[in-house]
Amino acid sequence: MNGSKLWYTSKTVWLGVITTLIGALPLVADLVARVAISPQDVILTGVGVLAVILRVWFTDTPVVH
After folding, report:
1. In whole numbers, what is the pLDDT of the chain averaged over residues?
2. Axis-axis angle for helices 11-33, 39-57 (nearest 10)
């Protein structure tokens, strides 16, 4: 595979996925309960998504989709 690895073997991708879920679950709960959305949850969700995007598209070691 000439230096590339499968996307699901990347620890950074999994860290981003976990971070996204930690931020997104409270967001969904707040939306269902019709409570004000926490800015911290929005930021945490965004950071998780950004971590996955950076790992998959902007690193030197390619990740196979």
Report:
1. 82
2. 150
